[in-house]
Design brief:
Elements lengths: L21 E3 L21 E4 L1 H5 L6 H8 L2 E3 L8 H6 L9
Parallel strand pairs: 1-2, 2-3
């Protein structure tokens, strides 16, 4: 999630997101709740964002926070998950027919 300055939430109710593995956030300071539950916390492989953003996340369940805390990587906006991946993705070769 990048430059979503008005984003306050991902969903309005608790949902099970079994395929959620990576979270990256940059310039989303109003987003203070994540769609992570005890059901999917173990599936989270990586969370990248600024430490200030991470510190402002509110948790309904501190067990969830403890499960994903070790997956958090503080970084600058330029190294937030996805930015470098998109830069490294090879271009799709042009086909000549």
């Amino acid at each position: 999630m990048w430059d979503l300055v008005n984003l306050k939430g991902v969903c309005t109710r608790t949902v099970h997101l079994p395929v959620l593995e990576r979270i990256g956030a940059s310039n989303c300071s109003l987003l203070v709740k994540l769609p992570i539950t005890t059901n999917n916390a173990e599936d989270i492989k990586e969370i990248r964002a600024k430490l200030e953003w991470w510190s402002n996340i509110t948790w309904q369940d501190y067990e969830v926070k403890s499960l994903v805390q070790r997956r958090f990587q503080a970084c600058t906006a330029s190294t937030t998950l996805g930015k470098e991946e998109r830069a490294e993705e090879p271009e799709t070769p042009q086909r000549s027919w």
